[in-house]
Specification:
This protein folds into 3 domains: 198 residues, Ubiquitin-like (UB roll) (Roll), CATH 3.10.20; 164 residues, Uridine Diphospho-n-acetylenolpyruvylglucosamine Reductase, domain 3 (2-Layer Sandwich), CATH 3.30.465; 137 residues, CO dehydrogenase flavoprotein, C-terminal domain (Enolase-like, domain 1), CATH 3.30.390. The protein is built from 17 helices and 20 strands. The strands form 7 sheets. A 5-stranded antiparallel sheet has the order 10-11-16-12-13. Helix 2 crosses helix 3, helix 2 packs across helix 5 and helix 14 packs antiparallel against helix 15. The longest helix is centred in the last third of the chain and has 19 residues. It is globular and about 70 Å long.
């Protein structure tokens, strides 16, 4: 191999109580292809090959502190090299892992529950469901947590079935705790992981590699890059993996701001956002199925720059900025610059990132509470409720005081070549009373502010109307109407049902 190529390292992971060592794995090789075609592990099924159906779901465990972090992921999108230093399970491993004590049972509780609750018909999706249930078992049942219906639905959100109607599968999720327990020898597993833990990669080393190979594709969760490989059949000769850099995986909370590293998973990033803004909980669940959220990263979603990427409208509304880093050879240190997220994009999937730069951190201001009242909401409209691409995404953050809009920020996706900020609509709201008249004027403005395309998801006219109606919905919710997030606002009087009907546009 020419010397100017980043070196291809051996791949090592733990499976069935042993260290698996695989040499010369191509950079673009997916985990699914490695398991099925190279290692002959056909219990992992290939369904959609695009991260939608969950038939290919496997479970990864990684050392985290003194314990283990369990994640169900789509193996069809995950690059094989990204599981280096992890432990891996497929459906076939649940009865063959010497580190897994089934207590004399023939099947793991995830498998036995599916059998008893008649959760399988054609069976093609079953291995994926079983693995999502296995992750749920490790994360919830082993921890002594009761699996509610809502928790079962959330943990299985990345799996689709054409046969059962889901009720028996959800019943299986809730019945696992009643079966004889299955226990993993955590100490032995951690010892094995310690033997293959990848050498720590520093931010400085990554920036130097970025400067040396500026044409190399940066990769983290690969949920979008995986589609380029599996569907676009695009070769990827040079990849730089950011997931091993500790600095990029941090979540920092400081007075006045929240910092989320670019390699933080979407699941963890949204958990941090929901902690600061609890009203974003439903939006976070609708972002994607759980396996995608546990692989994809916030920085990757931003760098990808899709106009229908759901994180960017929200972050624009929250006035986020990006920390961009490059290696300065003269100073032998990292050089940084900052840019507001709405100024980052220059066109369709184009941005202001230099050839030797990378996104290091997303910085979000968290204003201290004062006399005013914050109103933050995000809405996603799509054909499917879960695990689907947005038709329109709208997020708004208002600062209200005694019924007046002190400041407004609105982010929109699905209506332009890039995620955008609705500056004209913000101007209509700012300094005005948060009232029916103001909102109706803002609705007219936002419906004319953009020129969306008509495509298979929606017409341009429908998208314009959606923008206005989502603004109206937010105002109704702020008044305590019986809609999701109906929490009300201080200093604002709820309107009566009769008045609400009369005022509806």
């Amino acid at each position: 191999m020419p010397s100017d190529h980043p070196p291809i390292q051996p791949l090592r992971f733990v499976q069935r109580g042993a260290i698996v060592n695989v040499e010369r794995v191509a950079p673009e090789r997916t985990l699914l292809a490695l398991l099925r075609e190279d290692l002959g592990q056909v219990a992992v099924k290939e369904g959609c090959n695009s991260g939608d159906c969950g038939a290919c779901t496997v479970v990864l465990a990684q050392a985290e502190g003194d314990g283990l972090r369990w994640r169900a992921i789509n193996s069809c999108l995950r690059l094989a090299h990204s599981v280096d230093g992890s432990a891996l399970w497929t459906a076939a491993d649940l009865t063959q892992d010497p580190l897994l004590d089934l207590g004399g049972a023939q099947l793991h509780p995830a498998q036995q529950a599916m059998l008893e609750q008649h959760g399988s018909q054609c069976g093609f999706c079953t291995p994926g469901f079983v693995m999502s249930l296995f992750a749920q078992y490790q994360n919830r049942v082993v921890a002594g947590e009761t699996v509610t219906r809502e928790a079962a639905q959330a943990d299985l959100s990345g799996n689709l079935c054409r046969c059962t109607g889901y009720r028996p599968i959800l019943d299986a999720a809730q019945s696992m705790a009643r079966l004889p327990p299955a226990r993993i020898d955590q100490a032995a597993l951690l010892d094995l992981l310690g033997q293959i833990a990848p050498a720590p990669t520093t931010l400085a080393a990554l920036l130097q590699a970025r400067a040396r190979w500026p044409e190399a594709r940066l990769v983290a969760g690969a949920t979008d890059l995986g589609l380029s490989i599996t569907k676009g059949l695009q070769p990827q000769a040079r990849l730089l993996d950011l997931t091993r850099v500790e600095e990029l995986g941090r979540i920092e909370r400081q007075p006045g701001w929240l910092g989320i590293g670019a390699a933080v998973t979407l699941e963890d990033a949204f958990a941090a956002l929901v902690q600061q803004w609890p009203t974003l909980a439903e939006f976070a669940q609708r972002f994607a199925g759980l396996p995608v959220r546990q692989s994809g990263t916030l920085g990757g979603n931003i760098a990808n720059g899709s106009p229908i990427g759901d994180s960017m409208p929200l972050l624009i509304a929250l006035r986020a900025r990006l920390q961009l880093l490059r290696w300065d050879p003269d100073r032998q240190a990292a050089a940084e610059r900052h840019i507001a997220l709405e100024d980052f994009y220059t066109g369709y999937r184009r941005n202001r990132l230099g050839a030797d730069e990378l996104i290091a951190r997303i910085e979000i201001p968290c204003p201290e509470q004062h006399a005013g009242c914050g109103w933050t909401r995000a809405y996603k409209v799509s054909k499917r409720h879960e695990d689907d691409i947005s038709t329109v995404c709208l997020a708004l953050s208002l600062q209200l005081d005694n019924g007046q809009v002190l400041a407004a920020a609105i982010g929109v996706g699905g209506v332009a070549a890039t995620p955008v900020r609705a500056t004209r609509t913000e101007a209509v709201l700012t300094g005005q009373p948060w009232s029916v008249a103001t909102v109706q004027q803002a609705m007219k403005t936002i419906e004319s502010e953009f020129e969306p395309l008509s495509d298979l998801r929606a017409s341009a006219g429908y998208r314009r109307q959606l923008l206005g109606q989502l603004l109206w919905r937010s105002w109704l919710e702020s008044q305590g109407s019986a809609l999701p997030y109906a929490t009300g606002l201080q200093a604002l009087e709820p309107i009566s049902p009769r008045t609400e009907t009369e005022l509806r546009p």
